[in-house]
Amino acid sequence: MSYEKVSQAKHIVVGSKQVVKALKAGSVREVIVADDVDSHVVDRVLLTAEEMNVNVTHVDSMKKLGKACGIEVGAAAVAITM
Length: 82
What we know:
about 80 residues; alpha+beta; 4 helices; about 25% strand
């Protein structure tokens, strides 16, 4: 379901650093994080999302998340923006 949500979203931000930046800017509706990523990669994303009161959804595969974004590589974190 979350993969569909990402692929159908009009505005997304891909990558943990870019997601943190978008969260701090206050333009994120939801964050999607892959569970098969090392925790140190997404710790900052999860902490910032919690601070900004943004819902975080977990998916099982970084590779599938990247594919849902339309990129050829895996994605650790994706933000659906407003």
